[in-house]
Fold these 3 entries.
Entry 1:
Amino acid sequence: MSYLTFLECALCSKQYNADTVQTLCPECKRPLLARYDLEAAKKNWDRDCLSTREPNMWRYREVLPVRDESKAIKLGEGFTPLLSAQRLGDSLGMQNLYIKDEGVNPTGSFKARGLSMAISRAYELGIKEVVVPSAGNAAGAMSAYAARVGLKAHVFMPVDVPLPFQQECRALGANVTLIDGLITDCGHEAKKLGDEHGWFAVSTLKEPYRIEGKKTMGYEIAEQRNWKLPDVIIYPTGGGTGLIGMWKAFDELEQLGWIDSHRPRMVSVQAEGCAPIPRAFEAGDEFAEPWQNAATVAAGLRVPAAVGDFLMLRALRESNGIGVSVSDDQLVNAQMRMSSLEGTFACPEGGATLAALENLLATGWIKPEEEVVLFNTGTGLKYPAVFDLLND
Ligand SMILES: *Cc1c(COP(=O)(O)O)cnc(C)c1O
């Protein structure tokens, strides 16, 4: 059973009913976060029972928002391997390097976690049609989970989105509209048509449940490391759902009594062509200014303005973490090194975490003996254009 109690605004802390359809906080237009009765969960839920559960993210159902198990839409999302990166570690003089490999998720990225949760909860609350503006992986994941229970999916993509992303959505039965413009233009169009037709929008952090799917990465790292968190987690950041989600998960885990107060230093990596979070982190700002003329081959990192900016910045500061940016040239070359040394075809966003690690080892911010987890957030198969950027 789910111990979901209510939704709470992450900025003003006002509480809302969790069993009706909600989007942003009506007062301050910022994200709503799901809260659980963790006291009760702590009494009745023992972490040792996890060993008998299915190896997917639904093994943490007590702290997930879906109430009726039959409404959980499953394709095998989550419980991805935490690979020990031996050869890559050796090349960097490190003994404790790991890659959380999200490329093996359904639809080839960790977007499956968030969209599995958001679409399941929308389905449970009676939604019939869903819409998303997306530059890639989110659209494919939404299309897949909508298809599985027969919800109608509408996708708005910039025309320059790589073909495999478009083809995936079409194959999965979504109604795909290509927009001659940027992701922000797609957002406006999706909102306009969505409002007209009553489609529910599942944009990141603009509904409360994608983050609940993404937070399971935090539960998994804890479980897979036998309830001891690593020293550093390096995360390629777009909207920041995963970063904020894991930070939330660690807090919940401590309240459940499953981990102690040790926290990893959280690193947010973005591309030099779109780095609003590192810039705001360095400036000491609470919110991030929108980035002008955002450009990077790592589509998942091309998010010029995020509604959860203050939550990312909070997590970085509370964890003694840092925001760093890397060039497209660096991240694509790192993508190839990660792939060829460890045998998983990484995406460019995954490569960005390795490039960030190399920079932080060079400055001494990370010590070679520390335990570090890199996130490969998706498969490299959907980005043919990166090969044009390689210097060999
Ligand atoms: C969406 C995406 C990201 C960014 O994830 P957020 O949690 O939204 O910051 C990183 N990598 C890939 C492959 C993505 O699709």
Note: Residues 183-197 form the longest helix (15 residues).
Entry 2:
Amino acid sequence: MRVRYSYLPQQFAEPEEILAAIRAHLQTCHLTLGPEVGQFERAFASLIGTTFAIGVASGTDALALSLRALGIGHGDEVITAANTFIATVGAINAAGARPVLVDVTPAFTIDPGRIERAITARTKAVIPVHLTGEVADMEPILALARRRRLQVVEDACQAITASSRGRRAGAMGVLGAFSLHPLKNLNVWGDAGVIVTNDPALNERLRLLRNHGLKNRDEVEILGYNSRLDSIQAIVGNWLIRQVDDITNRRIANAAAYDAAFGDLDGEITVPPRRPDVRRVFHLYQLYARRRDALYRYLHANGIEAKIHYPIPLPLQPGLAHLGYRPGDFPETERQAASLITLPVDQHLSEEQIRYVIEVVREFCRSR
Ligand SMILES: *Cc1c(COP(=O)(O)O)cnc(C)c1O
């Protein structure tokens, strides 16, 4: 049996409805910031439970513009998780600030106990990353941020509709950033992103920032960017946003089947800690594996397209060398890079495929 990683051919096997909407849109020739963008923003804000949602060009821009809207830039430091996808660090850099990395917990999110030591006189913000669809431990982070007067911008790019104690990921900090990249849980046909907030002044400022700082056709209020949510992507988003709950529930059910099947493989496989008060949305399903690389080869030899996110610890990437981090600085992040394996968990997997993955992983664990 083959278990592919990408489900995009299945997801968009019947695109006629979307194509018809795009054709109708073309007839209006209202090709930037058309009504589809506003419609998507209203639906997105209501999904996350915030007053405002601002569509932008990517998840990376959602983070960079958030920092800019808060006045964070040159000379400032921004703390984030050492195991994140490069885009978080790239966005801090794009805003002109210096990224400061902090190690994470075995549940993949920034370790609140380590943040305080990383704060300096230049620190302006913390970006907790809800990696894999897990939710960072927000209560201590928000309390610390209040005490030390730091802004909290959530990187919720992998965590659409995740929540902790009933509070949605992205809606707990002053701003929350999402990605609609084709590989994310709410995915469009290219790059797109969204920022959510309850703050009317930030909403106004972000709308200026994403559109050259233009107040109207002729007046430039602030210096901004060209980072609009593309109208065609908004059309795809409007079609898909209705399916988000179904998509997410399928992923959660698949993950629950895996968790139940892999709980007793002590020594070979360890299921990450699952905090009971979190609704995690499994953008990725990851396990710790003692013989990770051998398991990866075994799965591929048996037709299962497992992945490794991410094989090189971010702090040790050549592109971050100027930050001066050394092997051993982030033991948990390094351990994760060496032992995590990602299994397909998406909404298009059949029950047979899930059973087959379970069977092959268990078979591997029995072998020596
Ligand atoms: C995908 C992702 C981003 C960036 O999103 P893009 O839309 O690809 O720019 C940022 N942070 C995390 C954790 C992501 O997974």
Note: The pocket of pyridoxal-5'-phosphate is lined by residues 58-60, 84-85, 87-88, 129, 131, 155, 157-158, 179, 181, 191, 193 (CB under 6 Å).
Entry 3:
Amino acid sequence: MKQLERRTWAEISLPDLEHNYRALRAMLAPGCRFLGVVKANAYGHGAVRVAQKLEQLGAEYLAVACLGEAVELREAGICAPILILGYTPADCGGELLRYGLTQTIYDAGTARAFSEAACRAGKRLRVHVKADTGMSRLGWLCGGAALERAADDIQAVCALPGLEAEGIYTHFANADSDEDYTMEQFTRFLDLLAELERRGVTFQIRHCAASAAVLKYPCTHLDMVRPGIALYGHYPDPSCEGLDGSGLIPVMTLKTRVASVKDVPAGTPVSYGCTHVLERDTRLAALTAGYADGLPRVCSDRLEVWLQGRRIPVVGRICMDMCMADVTGLDVHPGDEAEIFGRHLPAEEAAALAGTIQYELLCAVSPRVPREYLEQDGDKTL
Ligand SMILES: *Cc1c(COP(=O)(O)O)cnc(C)c1O
């Protein structure tokens, strides 16, 4: 559907997504599978369109956080295997089977419930076992003394009827900045795999590398990698920049429009709380984006936007649906486009101003903001 209005919108460049996919794919050994992480509406980029593109490009697997996200993709016609990384209630085994999903298993009780559901349905549920090697989130603890116990549990779970234990994985806590800890985690994972193999338990797909490890530690790629943020064109950490060789390109550019322009005399306060008082006569543009669109309000008076090829400061508090920018000296008109972050202004900068990370900024682009998909490089404007 063509949008009624373009007030604030996110341009999603599918050619840039393809570029990033190919750049990451080129880092993998032949035979290593590619799982594209499309949780949280593909980090705000629109899960269905991103999944369609990744499927078309040949990604072997997709991953989401929860059942609802997986069902959205299946109902949109996505056929690729989908791994649910997080919690699915024990009584939702029927849905997992009906939609042909792969569930992460991290405790014996839920595994038994899913096994029973599969047996009742006369089907097999594909599962990936999660090992906790040091993230302290989901999975069987398997460091040091816990190894034997984890192997016992995992061996028992893999033997349950109705479950097909296709994969096993772990997740790094600090792959972007601590090599020693990452290698410690990796060693724990390998030790667990060796112990399980000794017991005759093996897995077709062993995986542990998210974006940072894909870029920094090729030895961790194993049978599959799980990049998320890098697919969307952002490095998890500056230390990862350039490691892919061709340079990742941000896929999303968040844009807004000028609603009004006026010349306001010195001494006039701007926006809620009157926190910013103009020091000189100022040309102010009211922009049609606010915190309900995903601009962090904490960036009030600090954010910059890109307008007419330069950085423009936001002045005063960011409102729910608007914010004001100082366009003194510029010939700006209602309807003009401005970039909030993306091609010209890295999301990392705004994230730093907000005291957060680019991941959160991308996810915070609200449902009110329409996503416009660019199919070809030439579709880019501004
Ligand atoms: C989110 C997530 C990823 C992707 O992480 P990025 O840093 O975005 O690449 C991979 N694996 C798991 C388990 C995750 O939760």
Note: The chain has two domains: 31-231, 252-381.
